[in-house]
Amino acid sequence: MSDSEARPTNFIRNIIDADLDSGKHSSVHTRFPPEPNGYLHIGHAKSICLNFGIAQDYQGQCNLRFDDTNPEKEDIEYVESIKSDVQWLGFQWDGDICYSSNYFDQLYAYAVELIEKGLAYVEELNAEQIREYRGTLTQPGKHSPYRDRPVEENLALFEKMREGGFEEGTACLRAKIDMASPFMVMRDPVLYRVRFAEHHQTGDKWCIYPMYDFTHCISDALEGITHSLCTLEFQDNRRLYDWVLENISIECQPHQYEFSRLNLEYTVMSKRKLNQLVTDNLVSGWDDPRMPTISGLRRRGFTSASIREFCKRIGVTKQENMIEMGSLESCIRDDLNENAARAMAVLDPIKLVIENFDGEAEQLTVANHPNKPEMGSRNVPFTREVFIEREDFREEANKKYKRLVLGKEVRLRGAYVVKAERVEKDEAGNVTTIYCTYDADTLGKNPADGRKVKGVIHWVSASEGLPAEIRLYDRLFTVPNPAAEDDFVAVINPESLIVKQGVVEPSLVNAEAEVAYQFERTGYFCVDSKDSAADKLVFNRTVGLRDTWAKIGD
Ligand code: ATP
Ligand code: MG
Question: What is the CATH superfamily name and number for domain 271-341+468-551?
Answer without folding.
Answer: Ribosomal Protein L25; Chain P (2.40.240.10)
